[in-house]
Amino acid sequence: MFQPGDIVEFDNLIAGKRKWHLCVNADRWFLNLNSPKDRAYPGDLEVDCAALPGIPATVSGKSIISCNMVLRMPDEKLGRCRPQKVGTVSVATAQDITAHVRGLRVLSVIEKKPILDGLGGVA
Question: pLDDT digits over 58-69, tens only?
Answer without folding.
Answer: 999 999 999 998
